[in-house]
């Protein structure tokens, strides 16, 4: 439910604002010890452990659910790649909902890491794409669908522009964000050509019963107001050898995922046996997210 | 240590005493601004509590009114210091004050710009992450990190310069030029750098076609150099009314002329951009189409940008045509037009089309929410309060009302220096435009003078004929470029005949160099050496000649002072 303010509340706050000189932005849960810690990448394993424990405690108290936060490191010899078969996608948005259930984004103001575009057959102009299609039944005859999420670029423009190194590319190719270091300037959102980055405009709202308690520090742990987040190829799953939630849920098998360095992987099979393309290739961002067509219009 | 503390307390108690002593208008002005600041503060408190959801920014348009104002104010800050250049080149008399007022405006504008960033970011309490050593600035890759550094450097530089000048004046000492000049010389290229880096923040994003044009940084500078001085002109006129701040009309008109050129360049660059997009008519055109004509019925920015274009164009012509820019009513109207025009063009007109349509082609129309506007007005009002107090302190120090108790008393400036009226030769012999050259020659010989003013039928000075004008007419008449070309390429019978002017109007130097009777000696000397002339015609308010100051008159006057 969205909180709305009327004029009286505004006046009340005016008075409160004049008297209160509290540190801006600090919620009551603010942990002073962690406010002045170092960047996540600079912490020792011991410090990370202590830090994660404090975070778990804080989150569990906040959401009333026991939450587990891990920091599984990248696996050596693994670089993740993703491929999406546009000829199979039926635009059902199950990937979107599975992602929401898995990754704990805010339900109000709603954040979704995957966005499915509906395009008219015979055209490929993003400006003519429909973002808010809602027919009775999908797929529709005259359209095809293109889901877009973080493309996990090799040359991520978002990482380049971040003024505080709050986002970086991990050795396994996943671009991650330290939600506790991000200052919320949103420059990365301006730099991203794929609209992959989302901002928490308010205190994220997640119903207790929908919260996924199995989380990763750089991935799906609950976020706070004023920071940026994005798809991490389900880092909490994939680093442990599982599929991302969107791959798992896709009813038509349009989503393929795997280790780009492993010649036997599913993703390598796609790259070697189908003609693939990447979104906005002219920008040289080198996405590790490929689109392909395995069959004609069925 | 204790002494320093005492000195500082003394200064501040003195400052408080003079700062808040003012007329009813001053208090009304300050109260109004304070109320706006409080409203802004209240809205910001709400934003802190609720998050940026109370703005109309969303995922599609993730920067809005705050960042628009930030961009514009960086331009104002840069231009305020750049104004020192013409002040130097054209030897404006009030140069020292222009430096101080300009740098104070730069300080205020940078502070406001930073506040706009502060209110825009989601986690202001983490801003220290961008500090070198303490945090982790993403250098050298992130332009925003650079921007933070150059902006703060610029702020410190200007604060230091102003403090240095102010402290010296407070203690009754003359600031050391060896420190001031390098400071100013550094702050000028720094001003250019600050604005360029800010442009580069947007410029370097391949994802945003509207910003990804190399013309952006030059355009930033051109528009800054028109809007900044426009604001300064208005401020100068207010200051000239309320205090002893002698900036001549000439200087104001000169700045106005510079505004015309800057705006001309700005409009040219903009048209170059429009041409490129429209003629290519590729995908890059879409945001521009949205801006100027709207897309699929989405046209919220259209009236704004056309207003801006209209104001900028009218402003350009006002400042271009000398007669119009020299009329204070049209001049001030032009200043306001250009200020608002650039504010729209470089604020919302620049930031929003970067996001509309967004990276996935969606159109989300943005206009600031009531809260965004309230917070923004609060910041601007805060800037207003700051600048008012800055200026009052600067004036108090300048006039000696705020001064260290042991400092030597202020020597009234130029009280003893003679004015033009004291040293000029009074009985002026003048000629009319139709006086034959021979007659002028004999007049010069007869009266043993070296030049005469030429006056029109209303006895207004329109030119000067000097010895050299007569000599040059006899021995050397330089054909103009067109004549020379014609003489080379045309057959003999068509060649331009050299006209031998035989009347005053043909050979006089026009416009003449004139000065008013109350011009001090120092300034007369400056004009004569700078323009390499031999005499200045002294005129009254009707532009009638009342005297002549020649080089020998100056020598006599200087000799008299030295004894």
Write out key terms for the chains shown.
heterodimer, A: 298 residues, alpha+beta, Alpha-Beta Plaits, four-stranded mixed sheet, two-stranded parallel ribbon, 12 strands, B: 563 residues, mainly alpha, Formate dehydrogenase/DMSO reductase fold, CBS-domain, 2 domains, three-stranded mixed sheet, two-stranded antiparallel sheet, 22 helices
What's the helix and strand layout?
The complex is a heterodimer of chains A (298) and B (563).
Chain A: H1 7-19, H2 32-35, H3 45-63, E1 68-70, E2 80-85, H4 94-103, E3 115-120, E4 143-148, H5 157-161, E5 167-169, E6 175-177, H6 187-191, E7 198-199, E8 214-216, E9 228-229, H7 235-238, H8 245-249, E10 255-259, H9 266-273, E11 276-277, E12 289-292
Chain B: H1 2-19, H2 24-50, H3 65-82, H4 84-89, H5 95-120, H6 143-170, H7 177-203, H8 216-242, H9 249-280, H10 285-292, H11 302-320, H12 322-325, H13 328-346, H14 348-351, H15 370-399, H16 420-423, H17 437-447, E1 451-455, E2 461-466, H18 467-475, H19 481-489, H20 504-507, E3 514-516, H21 521-530, E4 535-539, E5 545-550, H22 551-562
Parallel strand pairs in B: 3-4
Antiparallel strand pairs in B: 1-2, 4-5
Helix pairs in contact in B: 2-15, 3-5, 3-7, 3-8, 5-6, 5-15, 6-7, 7-8, 8-9, 8-13, 9-11, 11-13, 21-22
Task: Note down, in words, how this protein is organized.
The complex is a heterodimer of chains A (298) and B (563). Chain A has 298 residues and is an alpha+beta fold. Chain A has one domain (80-292): Alpha-Beta Plaits (2-Layer Sandwich). Chain A is built from nine helices and twelve strands. Chain A has helices at 7-19, 32-35, 45-63, 94-103, 157-161, 187-191, 235-238, 245-249, 266-273, and strands at 68-70, 80-85, 115-120, 143-148, 167-169, 175-177, 198-199, 214-216, 228-229, 255-259, 276-277, 289-292. Chain B contains 22 helices and five strands. Chain B has a three-stranded mixed sheet. Helix content of chain B is 63%, strand content 4%. In chain B, strand 3 (514-516), helix 21 (521-530) and strand 4 (535-539) form a beta-alpha-beta unit. With 563 residues, chain B is mainly alpha-helical. At the A-B interface, helix 1, helix 5, helix 6 and strand 7 of A face helix 2 and helix 6 of B.
């Amino acid at each position: 439910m969205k909180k709305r303010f009327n004029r009286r509340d505004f006046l009340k706050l005016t008075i409160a604002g004049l008297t209160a000189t509290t540190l801006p932005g600090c919620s009551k849960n603010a942990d002073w010890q962690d406010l002045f810690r170092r960047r996540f990448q600079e912490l020792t394993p011991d410090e990370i452990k202590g830090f994660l424990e404090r975070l778990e405690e804080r989150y569990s108290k906040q959401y009333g659910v026991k939450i587990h936060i891990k920091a599984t490191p990248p696996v050596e010899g693994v670089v993740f790649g993703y491929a999406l078969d546009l000829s199979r996608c039926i635009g059902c948005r199950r990937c979107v909902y599975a992602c929401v259930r898995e990754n704990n984004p805010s339900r109000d103001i709603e954040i979704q890491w995957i966005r499915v575009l509906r395009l008219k057959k015979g055209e490929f102009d993003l400006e003519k794409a429909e973002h808010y299609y809602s027919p009775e039944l999908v797929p529709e005859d005259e359209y095809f669908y293109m889901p877009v999420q973080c493309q996990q670029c090799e040359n991520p423009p978002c990482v380049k522009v971040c003024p505080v190194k709050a986002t970086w590319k991990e050795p396994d190719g996943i671009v991650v964000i330290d939600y506790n270091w991000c200052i919320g300037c949103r420059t990365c959102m301006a730099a991203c050509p794929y609209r992959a980055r989302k901002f928490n405009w308010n205190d994220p709202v997640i119903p207790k019963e929908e919260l996924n308690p199995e989380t990763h520090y750089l991935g799906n742990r609950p976020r706070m107001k004023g920071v940026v987040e994005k798809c991490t190829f389900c880092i909490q799953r994939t680093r442990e050898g599982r599929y991302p939630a969107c791959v798992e849920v896709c009813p038509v098998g349009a989503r393929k995922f795997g280790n780009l360095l492993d010649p036997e992987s599913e993703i390598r099979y796609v790259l070697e046996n189908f003609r693939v393309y990447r979104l906005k290739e002219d920008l040289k961002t080198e996405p590790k997210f490929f689109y392909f067509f395995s069959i004609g219009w069925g | 240590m204790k002494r320093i503390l005492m000195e500082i307390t003394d200064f501040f108690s003195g400052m408080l005493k003079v700062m808040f002593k003012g007329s009813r208008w001053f208090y009304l002005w300050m109260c109004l601004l304070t109320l706006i600041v409080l409203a802004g503060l209240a809205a910001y408190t709400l934003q802190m509590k609720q998050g940026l959801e109370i703005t109309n920014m969303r995922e599609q348009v993730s920067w809005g009114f705050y960042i628009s104002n930030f961009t514009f104010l960086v331009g104002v800050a840069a231009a305020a210091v750049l104004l020192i250049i013409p002040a130097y080149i054209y030897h404006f008399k009030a140069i020292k004050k222009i430096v101080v007022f300009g740098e104070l405006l730069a300080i205020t504008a940078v502070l406001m710009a930073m506040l706009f960033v502060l209110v825009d970011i989601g986690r202001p309490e983490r801003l220290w992450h961008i500090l070198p050593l303490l945090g982790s600035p993403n250098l050298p890759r992130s332009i925003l990190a650079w921007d933070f550094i150059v902006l703060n450097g610029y702020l410190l530089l200007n604060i230091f310069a102003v403090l240095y000048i102010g402290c010296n004046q407070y203690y009754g000492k003359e600031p050391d030029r060896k420190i001031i000049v390098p400071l100013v010389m550094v702050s000028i290229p720094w001003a250019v750098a600050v604005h360029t880096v800010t442009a580069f923040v947007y410029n370097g994003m391949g994802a945003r076609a509207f910003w990804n044009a190399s013309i952006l940084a030059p355009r930033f500078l051109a528009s800054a150099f028109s809007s900044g001085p426009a604001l300064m002109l208005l401020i100068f006129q207010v200051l000239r009314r309320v205090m002893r701040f002698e900036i001549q009309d000439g200087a104001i008109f000169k700045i106005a002329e510079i505004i015309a050129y800057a705006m001309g360049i700005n409009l040219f660059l903009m048209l170059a951009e429009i041409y490129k997009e429209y003629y290519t008519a590729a995908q890059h055109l879409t945001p521009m189409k949205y801006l100027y004509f709207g897309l699929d019925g989405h046209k919220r920015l259209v009236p704004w940008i056309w207003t801006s274009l209209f104001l900028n164009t009218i402003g350009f012509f006002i400042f271009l045509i000398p007669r119009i820019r020299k009329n204070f009513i049209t001049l001030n109207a032009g200043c306001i037009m250009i200020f608002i025009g650039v504010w729209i063009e470089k604020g919302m007109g620049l930031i929003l089309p970067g996001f509309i349509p967004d990276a996935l082609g969606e159109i989300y129309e943005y206009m600031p929410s009531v809260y965004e506007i309230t917070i923004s007005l609060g910041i601007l009002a805060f800037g207003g309060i700051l600048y008012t107090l800055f200026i009052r302190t600067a004036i108090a120090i300048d006039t000696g009302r705020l001064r260290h108790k042991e400092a030597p008393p202020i020597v009234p400036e130029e009280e003893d220096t003679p004015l033009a009226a004291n040293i000029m030769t009074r009985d002026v012999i003048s000629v009319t435009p139709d006086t034959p050259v021979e007659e002028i020659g004999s007049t010069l010989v007869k009266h043993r003078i070296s030049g005469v003013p030429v006056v029109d039928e209303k006895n207004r000075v329109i030119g000067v004929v000097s010895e050299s004008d007569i000599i040059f007419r006899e021995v050397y008449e330089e054909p103009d470029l067109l004549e020379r070309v014609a003489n080379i390429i045309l057959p003999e019978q068509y060649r331009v005949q050299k006209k031998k002017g035989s009347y005053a109007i043909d050979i006089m130097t026009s416009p003449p160099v004139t000065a008013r009777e109350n011009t001090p000696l120092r300034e007369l000397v400056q004009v004569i050496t700078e323009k390499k002339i031999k005499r200045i015609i002294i005129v009254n308010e009707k532009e009638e000649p009342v005297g002549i100051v020649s080089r020998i008159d100056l020598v006599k006057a200087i000799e008299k002072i030295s004894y």
